[in-house]
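queue> pop job 88
queue> type: inverse folding (structure -> sequence)
queue> payload:
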């Protein structure tokens, strides 16, 4: 493991008031820390067993997640499920969440197109991710993409440099760095897509040792 001496907002904010995931979710449903709540259909909180040893952190809800109120239920979520299975991980035993809990989008005609959250939105929402991690106390956190990694470990840690590595922030759970599955959906070349998917599964397989039993 590579030691990381500094870490991002999700690991630096104190969340001692949170008593449990259900209570935390009820609190988050009234969140106005940034303006994203104004246009989103609803908050999309994390989901999974309170005993989860692995936490998967994505970027933000997409259109399908925003409507369903559940994380990773759209095309990227279905691909993630397939890749987790191939890697030997049971998603039902993982806790799945996002760095940002409301859907940020731009309207193009009638379509709501994903818009990347900015640093301020990520930092304001990191309180909730930090609280989830405080409650869960997982053995491993998997950062799926740059936004999740920024929220967890700060701006200096990059996916391109650390992909596939397990990083160890001081006094916090280790973080496995990989891409977001939506990246795979954007690859047009069939051979390139296959190779990148295999690489993603290999990354996820490194989490198997942290899911005991």
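queue> result:
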């Amino acid at each position: 493991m590579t030691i990381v001496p500094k870490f991002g907002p999700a690991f630096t904010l104190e969340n001692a008031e949170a008593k449990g995931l259900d209570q935390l979710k009820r609190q988050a449903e009234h969140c106005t820390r940034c303006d994203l709540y104004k246009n989103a259909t609803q908050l999309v909180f994390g989901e999974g067993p309170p005993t989860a040893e692995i936490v998967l952190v994505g970027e933000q809800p997409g259109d399908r997640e925003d409507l369903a109120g559940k994380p990773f239920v759209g095309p990227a979520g279905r691909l993630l499920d397939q890749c987790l299975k191939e890697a030997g991980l049971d998603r039902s035993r993982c806790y799945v969440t996002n760095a940002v809990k409301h859907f940020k989008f731009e309207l193009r005609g009638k379509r709501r197109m994903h818009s990347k959250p900015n640093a301020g939105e990520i930092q304001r929402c990191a309180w909730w991710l930090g609280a989830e991690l405080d409650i869960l106390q997982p053995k491993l956190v998997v950062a799926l993409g740059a936004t999740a990694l920024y929220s967890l470990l700060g701006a200096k840690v990059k996916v391109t440099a650390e992909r596939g590595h397990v990083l160890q922030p001081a006094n916090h759970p280790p973080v496995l760095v990989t891409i977001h599955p939506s990246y795979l959906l954007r690859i047009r070349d069939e051979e390139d897509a296959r190779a990148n998917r295999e690489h993603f599964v290999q990354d996820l397989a490194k989490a198997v040792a942290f899911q005991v039993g």
